[in-house]
Design brief:
Sulfite Oxidase, Chain A, domain 2, 31% helix, 3 domains, alpha+beta, 480 residues, five-stranded antiparallel β-sheet, Immunoglobulin-like
């Protein structure tokens, strides 16, 4: 495995690493219920848990192969050949695979076979214990050095320096100032603008794509009269728009935190598409990222006047690598799986009846407008508060429709209106606050929101699949 990692580093093909390739294949085969469980249970650490699990599986399999090889050497060799075949198959079935991606798995299997001969001979008693320990230590040292060498070579291809060198132009259309009072000032309250390091991340990339902006191009093609290719420098020279927009994930459970608000800078996506002149009958934008991930976006949603962006910056700096550097899509009012392609390199104008994206092939809805959502941020679940005046506050969102009202309830009492904080537009979340004269004992607090169309958040709970969760958020607290 370590020699394979070194080979992948020499070739500069992180996705050809057997562990990453098999992990990516596992993600592709993961059923929806398991994917949702992993996001709920582990959040942004879900990929680390997967890799640790695969690593543990490799250790167990290696132990079994060693025991088999002590009985029959060819059994062990067959086990290693199977390892190499699985790794090679996984690497070659990735969307961005090249013929060279078969090399790390094959070289790794060959290295394992070469090591198995002397180790098996030592373990069967043909050499003394001292030579066995020295041989094992030597193999371990080679493995560690190979793994570190592979990681070092891949790290050298990191585009962090290129990102730091990006000079962002001034926007031709600036965002409105965030109004005074948009942030509810209470301990533990969500910040109105989410800092980049704390912005949620949900994607399928086990290793972050390293896309050099000097090599990046965006291709717009398919059902268009005029196919377009644009470089990163050309993108930065276009008129850029700055807007505050909240993004949210379809996997967000009731009361969940898979949402964030940022100030984005990018080229208006509608203007780019109109330059390509979509043909009659087209209804979908099938976008592809540098690692081969595909997402689908309703074409008419992008062209209806909302501030859909091909974004290059987030909160005043070039996009973080983990959030899509050098460019990504940001379409307000849609869940991320149909609107927020990171590391985007290709936009195909097509039809839903013709092409399916990664998530729609797995049963998620083709068109996924964000549902009206509200949650209680303060007090936290199971908190203990003192009797008397208690502040209740939280966050609500209904991107591109806006939040017109938030109501809160104690136990099964009457619904009461909360005070809404001001916002710069319809595409951001909105904070709310209320005061409650708390009485001793256990209590259940609930919240619901009404959007700009007059529709109130439904009470019935529904899981995120296939088009977003619904239900009122509630927290249980104790008043002393």
């Amino acid at each position: 495995m370590s020699v394979a990692e070194l080979t992948a580093g020499v070739l500069g093909r992180a996705t050809a690493s057997p562990l990453l390739a098999v992990g990516a294949g596992f993600i592709d085969l993961t059923p929806v219920w398991l994917k949702d469980f992993a996001i709920r249970r582990f959040g942004s650490n879900d990929k680390l848990v997967l890799l640790l699990g695969l690593g543990a599986g490799v250790v167990v399999a290696a132990f079994v192969i060693g025991l088999l090889a002590r009985r029959r050497l060819w059994w062990g060799l067959a086990g290693l050949a199977l390892f190499g075949a699985v790794a090679t198959f996984a690497a070659m079935t990735r969307p961005t695979a090249r013929l060279v991606d078969a090399v790390p798995g094959l070289v790794g299997a060959a290295a394992g076979m070469a090591a198995l001969f002397p180790l098996t001979r030592s373990a069967t008693g043909d050499v003394d214990r001292r030579r066995l320990l020295l041989g094992g230590a030597g193999v371990a040292a080679v493995a560690a050095g190979s793994a570190m060498g592979g990681r070092f070579l891949l790290a050298r291809r990191n585009v962090a320096a290129a990102r730091r060198a990006v000079r962002l132009p001034a926007p031709s259309s600036r965002a409105l100032p965030v109004p005074a009072g948009a942030q509810v000032r209470l301990p533990g309250m969500t910040t109105f603008t989410t800092p980049n390091p704390g912005f949620y991340r949900v994607d399928t990339a086990l290793t972050l794509p390293q896309v050099d902006p000097d090599d990046w191009t965006l291709r717009i093609h398919g059902m268009v009269e005029r196919p377009i290719e644009i470089t990163f420098d050309e993108l930065l020279r276009r008129p850029l728009t700055e807007r505050d927009i909240t993004l949210s994930c379809v996997s967000n459970e009731v009361g969940g935190t898979l949402a964030g608000n940022a100030r984005w800078l990018g080229a208006p996506l509608a203007a780019l598409l109109r330059e390509a002149r979509p043909r009659a009958g087209a209804d979908q934008i099938l976008s592809r990222s540098a690692d081969g991930m595909t997402l689908s976006t309703p074409l008419q949603t992008v062209l209806d006047g909302r501030d859909a962006l091909l974004a290059v910056a987030m909160n005043g700096e070039a996009l973080p690598i983990r959030h899509g550097f050098p460019a990504r899509l940001v379409v307000p009012g849609l869940y991320g799986y149909v609107s927020a392609t990171k590391w985007v390199v290709d936009l195909k104008i097509t039809r839903f009846a013709t092409d399916q994206a990664y998530w729609t092939r797995r049963g998620y809805a083709e068109r996924a407008p964000v549902k009206t959502f509200s949650r209680i941020d303060v007090p936290k679940p199971f908190a203990r508060v003192k009797a008397g005046r208690v502040a209740i506050a939280g966050t609500a969102w209904a991107q591109h429709r806006g939040v017109d009202a938030v109501e809160w309830q104690v136990d099964d009492g009457p619904w009461r209106r909360a005070e809404l904080a001001p916002v710069p537009g319809l595409d951001t979340w909105r904070q709310w606050v209320a005061e409650w004269n708390a009485t001793p004992g256990p209590h259940t607090l609930r919240v619901r929101a009404t959007d700009g169309t007059g529709a109130t958040q439904p009470e019935d709970r529904a899981r995120p699949f296939p088009d977003g969760a619904t239900g009122w958020h509630s927290v249980v607290i104790t008043v002393n």
